[in-house]
# Entry
Amino acid sequence: MSQPHSARMYDYYLGGKDWFAADREAAEAVLGRLPKVRTGARANRAFMHRAVRALVREHGVRQFLDIGTGIPTAPNLHQVAQEIAPESRVVYVDNDPLVVEYADALMRGTPEGRTTYLEADVRSHDIVADSHVVDTLDLEQPVALSLVALMHFISEEDEPYEMVRRLLEPLAPGSFLVLSHATGQFDPEGAAYFKDIYATGKVPFAPRDQQQVTRFFDGLDLLEPGLVATHRWRPDAPVVQSDSEIGGFAGVAQVRQ
# Structure
């Protein structure tokens, strides 16, 4: 609790209440220099909602594996999916004990579906093979792997591209990857400042440019409109923010059948 955590800082940006003094101080330091971070966090959340709705409605997806869940801010992924298809199943994964505290209270799914929480670190845990996953999801059927605002906290030494490949490998053909990622492409100085703030809490931060983020989708078929600034992925309303205000990229792709 004495060190800032990325999930709790993200909750602070979203206007949540589940954070500690260390998270508030770090987040306010970022917002003092980069007030647009709050806009970017909300755009990222809205992207997740749109991507889930598109997969459920247009592609019949009924299973989601959401890694890097963060504090469950309503509507969360299972609420978005189960509102359309109540039988949808969701496994949430995070490594923050505080998330566990709120998981039982806030991640209740529909009677027809199922919602499960796994406490694990994507860097050291074989998540797809875990009993929480295999007992909840049918891995012989398509699964949407959600890595929303996660991979920019994975440094190069942890082999982020290989990590995504390993997560996708056990999933059935026709599965999907939903990914958003911070970038310093629009504001290199701001991204460097952001990285320094996170370093105070020993949280790695690795913003990547569009070409680097595209590599996560190698071998997959990107859905339209491809990899774009987060708020430009199938927006519900006319886009008014500039790409620099958002500071990230997002895309959805399908595993080839």
